[in-house]
Amino acid sequence: MHFKHAILFVLLVAESSVVHGFTTSFPQSKLGHPTTTTVTCTHHAKVSNKEEEEDRPYRANLFQNDKLSRRNAIKSATIAATAGLNAELAWRNAVHTAAFALENTTPDTTNILPPGALQTIEAGKAVIIPNWLTPSETSAICQDVQQCFQDGHFTNFILSRNPNKVDKAANDRWIMPSFSKNRDGTNGPFVDPTIGNYELRHSLKLKMAQVKALLAKEMYDRPTLADDTQTHEMEYLRYGQGALLARHVDEHHLELKRPNGSKLPLKPNASRRSITWLIYLNDDWDGEVDGGQLRLHERQFDSVSYVGARKNDLQVGWLKAFQEKGEQPVFLDPNREGPENETCMLYTIDGSGNKRDLSTKPFANIALYLAGGDKVARSLMVSNGEDAKRLHLIDAPKSLVSSLKTKAGPAEGEDGGERIRDIVPKAGTLVMFDSVSLPHEVLMTNRERFGVQGWFHEKIYT
């Protein structure tokens, strides 16, 4: 988007914001210099319920929508957009610089990720790296997270779930994102240099830029991870007592986001989540007592082919490992030749790289069939009987079919080929996995938990 076009867009959105009573946020980011700050972050630093009650009115005041005049709203949104364009460009340049260094030198990359880490992700599993951050780094970041939360720079995350709902402020999931406005509308709080220990956050951002560049260089068919037009989500994370997050995947095929989504116009430089990462910060966490584990629903066996996507054909399922046949990813191609509205085709790729369609002809929008879970998908989208028995959807949507199921056995969408793997959120641990192929959840947290999370993006091809 050209600069003048961006400003015009901002003015239109700002005017709309005044009419509907809200203000608009824009992606932000800035550059600074690393620091060596070291502090202590321990169990006793958690916030008491009394402190939460006292602090809640102040924090709520920070998040309520400003009542701005039309002129002030336009001015505020314009400042936010121009600052965001420059700041986001700076972040992309950091990744681009790191990628250039990897391409033109032969550095020792084991200090970034251990050998075999990328292959683990490509096989559909999560990489767990304890002590990826030093204790001093972890303590400093944890202290910054806590201070930023106390200062009111976090936003409640609507997709989380706390069944107790006793105190939403104290007992839910909160984030401090890169890409949202702060009080004056000029920057997202994570990248605002006036908030907390900005130099420390910038140092972490440069470290993650190195990781992103290494993934782009070494992983199969993900070169646009290092493209300087791609973005990167990065944010602080806080779970309150009782908070949890239900099973989900972090990215879906365009056809599953909205009807015929693959055929709708895309914004310039459109991107999607490719790699999910998390860093844990609490230094005295006991999974048995404190809960809050990351539960991964991994396949029992490694994939015989690279998981995630083939360009815009994102993975939607698996062919379960059977006898001598290994676990095979199933992808959706929404652009096959066929009658109107019947252009979707499932296909798989075996261990030799051979592509094979799973049905004899294209079918209509996949969301219609996925709503019925594995059973409906096997009946309507796969022609070969053996393939149908092996087909399993990565994360079948809840449906009337699944709610009416009374027969004893695994829940709808589970074929017995998954294994549960619980990760205790210990300080300094880095977790990384493919955003498309690995369902996961967060178990109920019994005390306050802090972390950093993000998603590396890659290009959506047009």
Describe this entry's structure for a reader.
Helix 1 (3-20) crosses helix 3 and helix 3 packs across helix 6. The strands form three sheets. This protein has a seven-stranded antiparallel β-sheet. Strands 8, 9, 10, 11, 12 and 13 form a six-stranded antiparallel β-sheet that branches. With 462 residues, it is of the alpha+beta class. The chain has two domains: 33-62 and 97-300 and 419-459, Sandwich (Jelly Rolls); 309-409, no CATH class. Helix content is 31%, strand content 19%. The longest helix is centred in the N-terminal third of the chain and has 35 residues, at 70-104. Keywords: Signal, Vitamin C. InterPro entries: HIF_prolyl_hydroxylases, Pro_4_hyd_alph_FE2OG_OXY.
Using brief descriptors, characterize the structure shown.
six-stranded antiparallel beta sheet, alpha+beta, Jelly Rolls, peptidyl-proline dioxygenase activity
Quick description:
The protein is 31% helix and 19% strand. With 462 residues, the protein is α+β, with helices and mostly antiparallel strands.
SSE arrangement:
Blueprint lengths: L2 H18 L28 H15 L6 H35 L12 H6 L4 E3 L5 H16 L4 E2 L16 E5 L20 H21 L13 E8 L5 E4 L5 H4 L13 E10 L6 H4 L3 E6 L9 E2 L2 E7 L8 E6 L11 E5 L5 E3 L8 H5 L2 H9 L3 H6 E3 L6 H5 L13 E6 L6 E5 L5 E3 L6 E11 L3
Antiparallel strand pairs: 1-15, 2-3, 3-4, 4-17, 5-16, 6-15, 6-17, 7-14, 7-16, 8-9, 9-10, 9-13, 10-11, 11-12
Helix pairs in contact: 1-3, 3-6
